[in-house]
Amino acid sequence: MASRIERDGQRFKQIARGQVRKNLKQYISKGEMIGRQGKNLVSIPVPQVNIPHFRYGSRQTGGVGQGEGEPGQPIAGDPQSGDGGAGSGEGRHILEVDLTLEELAQIMAEELELPRIEPKGQKNIISEKDRYSGIRRVGPESLRHFKRTYREALKRQISSGEYNFRDPRVVPVRDDRRYRSWKEVRKPESNAVIILMMDVSGSMGDEQKEIVRIETFWIDTWLRAQYQNLETRYIIHDAQAREVDRHTFFHTRESGGTMISSAYNLCNRLIDESYPPDEWNIYPFHFSDGENWGGGDTEKCMRLLDEQILPKSNIFCYGQVESYYGSGEFLHELRKHYPTEHETVILSQITGRDGILDSIKTFLGKGK
């Protein structure tokens, strides 16, 4: 019975995953995921899914549909109120399904055909862990291996003729004791940091900021499924840039002018202070509507990218969200400066919520 219930549960989970994947674009384009997650689970509303099964009833007669009845004869149960009208539509049944963020990342990867991330070059560190893999004759009592000790004592008593089958007591002596031993295991671990930068200037409306928050949520989710050790740093900027926490990044409402180089300067400083490129996989993402202050700031951004950020990063991704007030000129300048086949710079134009999935695939499709 337990195995049958488990099989049914697995079938239900597969059906629910299929429903999520079928409506993935709808789920991703909405901002509900950001607010619906709790710890490592996300509750997703999907259409009601029932696994077919038999329903057994008691062997009684005289119930509804059995025997003859008189016109107007009431059916057992309390009368229910209603509007009295007939309907032809099907009822809407919604079920909350809990999926882990890792499962959501896998569903998205299957749908977008995303490759696994390959850490760049030697950007990993060696961690040392103690692993108990051997047995010693000496050691602390807290590490005594009771089964091995009992076996040694039993072998000794049998071989010496001391073992009594009628009174099978085994008493270990000092030479019988065995202890667990350990050795240090050196294991390479890839570390990664995502540096998310968002333009919060006056030309970025609430809708544009919401699109950025949704896309960065899913990018963060996917990269967390790829790296055991992942850190995320958040930068918002208008004419000035500042580092903020996750909550502020996803909920801030600011305005002002735009100076993109302020964000790139802060990004470069974070890398230099905390993330040596030979130990970390570094992923800067910048989102804006393309409006930038004049006075040579765009040229300053190009120099920062060429001389500082790109040599240290796996990839640098720029996503431009269409805005009524933004000129979109920055994307145009980036495309002139970096050809389409550039190995490190990846550019994406996000036309609206429907463009989020395509943008994610553009950024993560190279598997770098």
Question: Could you list some keywords that capture this structure?
Answer:
about 35% helix; single chain; Rossmann fold; elongated; alpha/beta; six-stranded mixed sheet; three-stranded antiparallel sheet; about 375 residues; about 20% strand; 11 helices
Could you write a compact summary of the structure shown?
This protein has 368 residues and is an alpha/beta fold.
Strand order of the largest sheet: 8-7-6-9-10-11
Just give the CATH class of the largest domain: Alpha Beta
Runs in which pLDDT lies below 50 for 5 or more consecutive residues are: 46-53, 91-95
Radius of gyration from the alpha-carbon trace, in angstroms? 31 Å
Based on helices, strands and strand pairing, what is the structural class? alpha/beta
CATH 4th-level superfamily of the largest domain: von Willebrand factor, type A domain
Helix content: 25-40%
- Describe the largest sheet: 6 strands, mixed
Average the pLDDT over all residues and give the rounded result.
76
Please report the total strand number as a whole number: 11
Number of domains: 3
Tally the helices: 11
What name does CATH use for the topology of the largest domain?
Rossmann fold
Query: What's the CATH architecture of the largest domain?
Result: 3-Layer(aba) Sandwich
Shape: elongated
SSE succession: HHHEEEHEHEEHEEHHEHEHEH
**Proportion of beta-strand residues:** 15-25%
